[in-house]
Design brief:
Length: 312
């Protein structure tokens, strides 16, 4: 999909589909799938707009930062799904309108959907060809304390084409370079890497640019105002101070040939105060834990070419 001002809306469906295999399977004495739900985890930049109905009027819930994954979950409750002896169950489908915002990652964005139900020890999830659909319940999605039971997972790929401009995106990696946030392994006190990506999707090479990244703290606000001039809440509940300087990370070796790095030690409330505040070099910072913001400045004579991506 191609970016539109205000974000690009699209339709997303979740549920239990009836096909030839499920309709004519041997269900034995089982007459229902108990307390069936789907949990759809939205990647960064993909947002919930509205519920648009379905084969029935299903109950749904939108949960931000679901199970500490950093992702928003759409939980749809289908209840008990009756299984007929002859032809299985009827389709159970819920339809949502989602929106790809300017913060969506260029290229593939994966919506992971999990099917959970109470009697999964009797009804095993299908293993579809070419898909890793059988997964352990590492997040304890059904809240029963058992993380070894097996659920079904399917993936929906949204291919996103950003606007013709310079696009900024940020993700979180653990120290094993894992971007998979459906396993909640980044607890308080753990180390992690922020990965800032700059993609030049404009029609000309960029020869002057500065990128400012403000580190999270509890109850902080966005670094820039919205259309009305209001600085929105960022939703941060804890601080994530630097554990090392940007220049000390091996992954930044090539980037440092093209960019200078500066640090700010004071919290600021506006973008103007952030830009005009004191910016220090690594040598001028005596305590890394005091760093509140980081700035990357493209060196004179360097450029970011059209369609080029730069990572920090």
């Amino acid at each position: 999909m191609i970016y539109q001002p205000g974000g690009t809306p699209f339709e997303f469906r979740t549920g239990l589909l009836r096909n030839k295999e499920t309709a004519y399977s041997n269900w034995g004495p089982i007459d229902k799938i108990t307390n069936a739900k789907t949990v759809a985890l939205l990647p960064s930049g993909i947002e919930f707009d509205e519920y648009r109905g379905g084969t029935k009027d299903y109950h749904y819930q939108v949960v931000k930062n679901y199970k500490n994954t950093g992702k928003t979950a759409i939980i749809t409750t289908f209840g008990d799904v009756a299984i007929r002896k002859i032809d299985g169950y009827d389709d159970q489908v819920a339809v949502y309108q989602l929106r790809a915002t300017k913060d969506a990652k260029r290229g593939s964005n994966i919506i992971e959907t999990y099917l959970i139900y109470d009697n999964n020890d009797v009804i095993r999830p299908a293993k579809l060809q070419n898909y890793d659909t059988q997964v352990k319940d590492t997040l304890d999605m059904d809240n029963d304390g058992n993380k070894d039971e097996i659920f079904m997972r399917v993936a929906t790929t949204i291919t996103y084409v950003p606007a013709l401009e310079v696009v900024l995106h940020k993700e979180v990696k653990n120290l094993n370079d894992n971007l998979e946030t459906t396993t909640s392994d980044l607890d308080l006190g753990n180390k992690a890497h922020y990965v800032v990506t700059v993609f030049n999707n404009s029609t000309e090479a960029v020869k002057r640019i500065s990128i400012i990244d403000k580190l999270p703290k509890a109850n902080d606000k966005s670094i820039t105002p919205d259309e009305t001039g209001h600085y929105k809440e960022r939703g941060s509940t804890f601080s994530t101070p630097l554990y090392d300087f940007v220049e000390n990370l091996e992954a930044n070796k090539e980037m440092l040939k093209r960019f200078d790095v500066f640090y700010q030690l004071e919290y600021t409330d506006t973008i103007e105060a952030t830009k005009e505040g004191a910016w220090l070099t690594k040598a001028q910072v005596d305590d890394i834990s005091k760093v509140k913001s980081i700035k990357f400045v493209l060196k004179t004579g360097e450029s970011i070419n059209v369609k080029e991506t730069v990572n920090f």
